[in-house]
Amino acid sequence: MSEHIAKQSVEKMTLEAVVIRADGTQEDLGVIAEYHRNPLRRLWASIRGVGKIRH
Amino acid sequence: MPFGTATVVTNGGKRTIADRLQTTPTRNPFKYPGMGTGATSATRTAAAADTALSTEVETPRTAGAESTVTVTQTGDTYQNVGTITAASARVVDEAGLFDATTAGNMGTSATFAVINLATADSIQFTWKVQLT
Question: Which of A13, A23, A38 is best to mutate for the B interface (most B CBs within 10 A)?
Fold first, then answer.
């Protein structure tokens, strides 16, 4: 019987942010930081501009 | 390492995840979101070895709302939603999840482009950690 050792770790991690101003208005910044175990997905996130906050 | 956008489960977070698989865990869940202002000046990018934010603000922390959500497999993602209100003008560039209201262990770490807050502005952070 073969032994399968699967790589077990975090598949994906995201941090999203919504700024709520004191006057109640909200600014959805979306994903501000992201990690994906697949390096190609990380590259794609970089191309998409994850982390480039819009003000 | 220069400042950059990143988010990671820290080594302390991995330890907590493993610990909490036990029948009787010894470490507390990292359910308290925190934010800080020091990553850019510290030229720091979030890394697994992180144990604290560079300059944390607005403590003590308040627990976020925890749940599991489905991304690929049923309930495969931990989610924590928490709101932090600025006591004064802040230039926020780092955040983490901790296992205590003050100090404690940091289970996740993130650095990101600055978010400018005025007094009484808030940020609602939503952390999602998908396991596989």
Answer: A13
